[in-house]
Amino acid sequence: MRYARSLDPMERADAIRQLHYDAFDRCVATLPAEKAALVDLLGSGCDNDGNWQLRDVAGSLVALVRDPAAPPRAVSEEPEPTSEPQPARAKLNLREHDKKLLRAVGRRMNSLHELTTKGMADLAELITVLAKRIKELETKSAIDSEAISTTEQISERVDAIEQRGFRFVGKYQAPATYGVGDVVSYKGALWNCVAAAKVGDRPNTASHKWALMISGIQE
């Protein structure tokens, strides 16, 4: 199969699958209406020569049909009739290909979930608040070294959070549940969920489910 431009794997898979569906439609169109209504796409399959085994949802054979658009075969290539049709190879290949596509889509969705729009917006807001607080402390004439050290540690911890890819989900909400890796702000601190937290498992009470990451921040 040739294309005017190079296709990525997803586009190429869609094009091949569309050809498969078109051939299936042509074969079903050759059947009487009562038989055509019984045919199931996922239960049917074809071989490399365009011979289709059209089956119903239970896997029972409805009809053996050759794709009308398939090139004619020489007489010597006609298969000998058999009492029992051979298993359809294309059906298994199609399903395995679909599984691979679904796994690829699933991996892509999981990677996108790690950096949700809301989580990134909330994290950016928190960093802005911290930066403003640091600037306020630096402008005070009576600032001491301990305060400078504290703000530097907070900044370093925030950078570490970003690099490790934690999911910052905003302020803690009592009616919500949280999963491992979720980071929330609660009473002037950042907390990391280390075990699945149910409704009402507050960071400062359910200590076995939350780990303190940063304290002394201004919300």
Key words describing this protein structure:
219 residues, 7 strands, 5 helices, four-stranded mixed beta sheet, 17% strand, 2 domains, Seminal Fluid Protein  PDC-109 (Domain B), alpha+beta
Helix-strand blueprint:
Elements: H1 9-29, H2 33-36, E1 40-46, E2 51-55, E3 61-66, H3 89-114, H4 117-139, H5 145-164, E4 167-171, E5 182-185, E6 189-193, E7 210-215
Parallel strand pairs: 4-5
Antiparallel strand pairs: 1-2, 2-3, 5-6, 6-7
Helix pairs in contact: 4-5
If strands are numbered along the chain, what order do they take across the biggest sheet?
4-5-6-7
- The total beta strand count reads 7
- Roughly what fraction of the amino acids lie in strands? 15-25%
What number of domains? 2
Q: N- to C-terminal separation?
A: 59 Å
Given the C-alpha coordinates, what overall shape results?
A: elongated
Kindly state the percentage of residues in helix. 40-55%
Radius of gyration: 31 Å
In the predicted model, the low-confidence regions spanning at least 5 consecutive residues are none
Question: What structural class do you assign from the helix and strand content?
Answer: alpha+beta
Q: For this entry, what is the oligomeric state of its chains?
A: single chain
H/I helix tally: 5
What pattern of helices and strands is seen along the backbone?
HHEEEHHHEEEE
Question: What is the mean predicted local confidence, pLDDT?
Answer: 77
Describe the structure.
The chain has 5 helices and 7 strands; from the N terminus they run ααβββαααββββ. The chain is of the alpha+beta class and 219 residues long. The chain is elongated and about 95 Å long. The model has no long low-confidence stretch (mean pLDDT 77).
